[in-house]
Specification:
Elements (H helix, E strand, L loop, with lengths): L5 H17 L10 E6 L5 E8 L3
Antiparallel strand pairs: 1-2
């Protein structure tokens, strides 16, 4: 998960909050951030609830 560090999590969180605001969602509506890692050998790993709003 090193490709989704704090700076990227913060950018994704800000984008999600913008989406919420522009589509009429309340700010504390449930939201889940998953990360899918794809490795060079073809393996994939799905991490549910990888991070929360930053």
């Amino acid at each position: 998960m090193e490709a989704v560090g704090y700076a990227k999590q913060k950018k994704i969180s800000r984008t999600a909050l913008y989406y919420y605001a522009s589509h009429g969602y309340i700010e504390n509506a449930p939201c889940r951030f998953d990360v899918v890692a794809i490795y060079g050998d073809g393996r994939m790993e799905h991490m549910e609830n990888a991070f929360e709003f930053c």
